[in-house]
Amino acid sequence: MSAALDCIVIGSGASGVACASALLAAGRRVHMLDVGIALEPERQTRVDSARARGALTASNAPWLAEQNTSDRIPRKLVFGSDFPFRHAKEHLNLSSDNFGAEPSFARAGLSTVWGAAALPFSSHDIADWPVTERDLAPHFAACGALLGLSAEVDDLAEWLPLHGSPRGRLETSKQARILLETMQRSRADLARRGLRFGRARVAARSDACVYCGLCLHGCPERAIYSADQTLRTLMNDPRFSYQDGAVVERIDDGGVYWRARGAAETSMLRAERIFLAAGALSSTSILLKSANAYDRTVRILDSQYFVLPLLMFRGGGKTREEKLHTMAQLFLELRDPGISPYTIHLQLYTYNSLMAGMMRRRLGALGEPLARWGDAHFVLVQGYLHSKHSGFAELTQRRDGLEARGVRVPESRGVIDKVVGGLTRMSAQIGAIPVAPLMEIAEPGRGFHIGGSLPMSAAPTYFETDTLGRPFGWRRVHVVDATVLPSIPATTITYPVMANAHRIGAAVAAL
């Protein structure tokens, strides 16, 4: 048997590369195992060719914006490809009932298809964690540098610190500018009502954006952060090695049992430390199988996701012709004790082709003139609640596959209705009014803000982890993705998961 490796990191998503970055910075050697499915070369070639001809916009290259539109809330693809979701569900033999999340076997994981919104968790929302905001702060700073955030210092910073200097600032759309100007005039009044607002913080390079409007379909300029960008940097370090095509089946305290994708034979690697970053669903499945915990049900937490159209009192003009980015334009953070003791996070999107199509399907056959008027006047909020107000899923690892059963809780609807009521009362100060009949409240998991199936605890029991992500009393295995979060605050999940993974990697390297 060959000598044990120093560190193995399982998974190349955001948590995996953040953990690996911390380990390498501390002088450790890292071997990364990954399935590593990527965009089809022929599709990438077509994108690059269109980009070279200057023919990349949502309007003149509709094939770039192909989406699954059968759902009320569309499934995001990358240049029309479903590669971020390919093969993973089949490998897990995942059966889902009222549960919207999916695992990923992609190189860079779900960061290939995320919306790039990036906020930290605040002490207000993680007061019951065994890890504090102060513990996470230096790791937010380190991961913020990886992400390259476009942001500005504004009223949001008091609640949700920037943890470093922004790399730049993206230009807002005309609709967003109108709403910002309206809210600025009522800033003090909105603050008294518990509403803070500002430009969205997004992991995208402002100097590379060409405002082609394709952000929700894939960025031809690679301006939006993907963990693949960090992975490519790590590959330049001689202490880092990357092995794709590797499917991890189970682990023990010092060993990883894996096989090449499509092969039957299993191999084993030993390491001084193992870091599991396969994503909440895959990691939970691996851990349950590794503990021989078949037929044992664990709860995975969710941040309840809902979509709420707003009707602007003053329209944004010819939105279809505007050069703009189509990531979240504005963030609204609501802290109202009459609604919730936790922060409620609202991401506001202005015109984009994906959401315009969704609104057309909801409005029905009301005619193209009304549709164009709607393009200028409708904006869309994606809202999230703290997991304390949200449904969840029950995960059960069977011998023949993973079962996920989503469970809604009535409390979610009650909190969301109060949010809609609050926004309605503030509509004059915001410049737009909610259109509640068109609201969609998604099933658990649909927002992909999930985790907490083996939560960190100061005094962990068998199906919990310690503050270094160690489950089952193991000493050399560390779970570093969202699996270990004790709760799921409403603010965005990828950036905090990266910070916690970086924290664990740095702490373990110092042992």
Question: What does the model show?
Answer:
This protein is an alpha+beta fold and 511 residues long. Helix content is 27%, strand content 20%. It contains 13 helices and 19 strands. It has helices at residues 14-25, 41-52, 88-92, 133-147, 174-185, 187-192, 227-234, 280-290, 353-363, 368-377, 410-425, 427-430, 494-509; strands at 5-10, 30-33, 95-97, 195-199, 240-243, 246-252, 255-260, 267-276, 297-302, 305-312, 330-334, 344-349, 378-384, 392-398, 401-407, 432-434, 440-441, 450-451, 477-479. The strands form 3 sheets. Strands 1, 2, 5, 6, 7, 8 and 19 form a 7-stranded mixed sheet that branches. Strands 4, 10, 11, 12, 13, 16 and 17 form a 7-stranded antiparallel sheet that branches. Strand 14 (392-398) and strand 15 (401-407) form a beta hairpin. The longest helix is centred in the C-terminal third of the chain and has 16 residues, at 410-425. The radius of gyration is 22 Å and the shape is globular. It starts with a strand and ends with a helix.
